[in-house]
């Protein structure tokens, strides 16, 4: 028996060249892709280009532990005078100095509430007095405490602000000491008195060595969001292809299954159920890869696992709700909601206090901001509720409820209006 010959290639169809000359085919892709490229460029680059110029109330602790007696003719010791001068001389609203004692500052560093601290140590006034009298064995010292758990850039900004404030305070103090010393001081002592204060930097709240300098929380959060986003879209497309509402193509192979009559509401319920089930797999594999294989520092593993599942689930449910409401363009809408708008407003790489106001407003409700705070609390701040974990749980619950309410409200509305996705095809 002769073998069946393959079906002939289509003939008489339009050529690619003739189709390229059809202007209408270009309009929609050109407008949409151009708009997306423009918006992505503005969103991503607009939030990072000028963090110093965008500083707004960056929280930094200021600790005055000086217990020395005031210099002759002064009512306050130098620690009190220095602290008051630093607060009053801060430009505009760039920095929000929090005047705390050492224990309070350490607690706020451990809760991620401040990006760093500037400490006036005990005996500071006595050390300056000894320097002025020429009996000092070493220069008076101010200490800058960093908080790497708040991200490398956030900690660096606080470090920069604190060191600049310390340098300005040292120069002003040096001017006063030089005037007081008069001609009695020798050239070497006068040179030392012009800039009398040394600045040392220490880690105020250490994190693990395998924490990416405070960036592991951001990248782990990004993995959770991407896992929920991609899995949601894969499930959406896979279910539509399996039920016969979309074509299935793999390389040159194309198939179209018979359409299964099903309402939009039931389809959405199926997709959300599959999202909840597969989120277990995706979050488990993320943890195996990042913690088991790569060795990321990750305390509180059971809590991290539960949080990771709920975070990825919230994103996946949101994707399904948006796809149900917007149809084919829903994947693009979801991309803007969960990635394009979320990344620059997450506060995980560039602090929200160092981005333009637009991003700070987005950070109030954009999901990645909430999830990053929760992950950061678990990884770096001993899973403290006041370090962002409590807010993250609340926002996850709100996000899941909003996705369910919005998705099913839209699906049921379309069903009641008789807006069926496609007329079923017989087998």
TrEMBL record:
One Pfam family recorded for the sequence: DUF3533
All residue ranges annotated as the DUF3533 domain in the record: 34-397
Residue stretches spanning the membrane: 26-49, 217-235, 272-294, 301-319, 325-343, 392-414
Membrane topology, from the record: Multi-pass membrane protein
UniProtKB keywords: Cell membrane, Membrane, Transmembrane, Transmembrane helix
Subcellular location: Cell membrane
Region (Disordered): 164-187
Name of this chain's protein: DUF3533 domain-containing protein
